[in-house]
Write a structure and sequence with these properties.
Shape: globular
Largest sheet: 3 strands, antiparallel
Strand content: under 5%
Distance between the termini: 83 Å
Helix content: 40-55%
Strand order of the largest sheet: 1-2-3
Order of helices and strands: HHHHHHHHHHHHEEEHHHHH
Number of strands: 3
Number of helices: 17
Radius of gyration: 27 Å
């Protein structure tokens, strides 16, 4: 069967690929690669690695049922001594997963947990059970907590009772210079939560949460970063809509610019979230919040163009997929932000804050300039609190001019 998927002389291809204990599974694995959308050129390269692994298992006298990540690493170390091409790890990783799902090799044994893992598991249970945080917030808290614990207990046993106030301040001072102000504020907030939890559990002798320094951040102290209307259009025009990737990126940017969606909301958008009959879009926002937005005509046309002409065939229900196999949905907001940053760079629009959220600020600013009230902007952006929209009052220049005091000697 595999000859249908791998182009080349049949006899020669059979002899090269049907080698060793893996030979019986080549057909099912090649079928899997085809289902994931890999081209025949990519499949040929991947099957070359597949055949090399089969020959290595024979030479090394490793039984197929013993194959695991440790043997795979040894195989690549041996292969790289004679082959300069370092690709192929993703292929073998997919092969291991395929063999495990087919019950050919046993499921991988999890690595034995260390002390940091135990602390993380306990804190995760607290955040989920007691604080009832969403999965995204839990992962963010755990990343910062692990960063703090790993900073002081590198490779050794975790002795939390030895932590002192100076350890907290030293970590914050070392960590903050590489963070933005909002990221620094988030870090200190999580540290207070984590250190307070440790004290409640009796893991520390004193409540070290009080030792976490405060990051200055006065409310509404900054102006929202935004693009002018002509800049937004310039960024949209820079997408090459003659290509499939260009159509996809253009559709992503239109959702950001016309509807003010967050990057994570675009990444989570599913085919079932588009109600073509009612002309509505289901948006899965922060936490468990779900909103419905009207599907504007120009936004709908862009989505139709992408779905009909550029979206790869895939079993995934995500609207936006990777441009290369395997054709699956984006793992999170980072991929959408990368699309936005790339488009801004192509359009030569340079901002200090070059991420997807700048389009959300730009939409609010344009609405304000067209006479929309702050309450209307809050509805479009789906703000839960009026205070979240108040920052846009700082860029509403006409009302601000009426409030400005005359400058001595100036002209009104």
């Amino acid at each position: 069967m595999f000859v249908r998927y791998i182009r080349g002389p049949k006899s020669k291809r059979r002899s090269r690929l049907r080698v060793g204990a893996l030979a019986a599974y080549i057909d099912s694995f090649v079928s899997l690669l085809c289902q994931r959308g890999y081209t025949h050129v990519t499949r040929r390269a991947q099957m070359g690695v597949f055949a090399d692994l089969g020959r290595w298992l024979e030479r090394s006298h490793v039984g197929l049922k013993d194959l695991d990540e440790k043997h795979v690493e040894a195989f690549f170390q041996a292969r790289w001594q004679r082959v300069s091409d370092r690709r192929g790890k993703g292929t073998i990783k997919a092969l291991l997963q395929h063999l495990r799902q087919s019950n050919v090799i046993p499921t991988a044994k999890p690595a034995p947990p260390n002390d940091i893992d135990f602390v993380e598991q306990e804190y995760r249970a607290f955040l989920t059970g007691e604080r009832a945080l969403t999965q995204g917030s839990v992962e963010q808290y755990l990343r910062i907590a692990r960063r703090f614990v790993s900073h002081w207990f590198k490779g050794g046993s975790v002795r939390l009772h030895k932590l002192r106030a100076k350890n907290v301040t030293e970590f914050v001072l070392a960590d903050m210079p590489q963070r933005s102000r909002s990221a620094a504020q988030c870090t200190t907030k999580v540290l207070r939560s984590f250190l307070g939890y440790l004290f409640q559990q009796g893991r520390t002798t004193t409540n070290l949460a009080v030792a976490v320094p405060t990051v200055p951040g006065w409310r509404l102290s900054q102006l929202p970063r935004f693009l002018e209307g002509r800049q937004v259009e310039k960024v949209l025009r820079c997408c090459d809509r003659r290509t499939k990737m260009g159509k996809r990126d253009y559709a992503v940017l239109v959702l950001l610019a016309r509807l003010g969606l967050r990057a994570g909301e675009v990444a989570k958008l599913a085919l079932d979230d588009i109600d073509w009959q009612a002309g509505e879009l289901l948006v899965r926002g922060k936490g468990t919040r779900i909103d419905k937005l009207p599907l504007l005509q120009d936004v709908g046309q862009v989505l139709v163009e992408y779905l009909q002409k550029a979206r790869p065939e895939s079993s995934s229900r995500s609207v936006f997929l990777r441009s290369r196999a395997p054709f699956v949905g984006f793992p999170g907001a980072g991929a959408i932000s990368w699309i936005a940053r790339s488009a801004l760079a192509r359009a030569q629009v340079y901002l200090h804050h070059r991420a997807a959220h700048v389009f959300r600020h730009s939409l609010a600013t344009q609405m304000l300039g067209n006479g929309a009230s702050l309450a209307q902007i809050g509805q479009v952006l789906r703000h839960q609190h009026v205070s979240s929209t108040e920052i846009y009052a700082k860029v509403d220049l006409n009302p601000l001019r009426r409030l400005a005091l005359p400058w001595p000697g100036g002209v009104l």
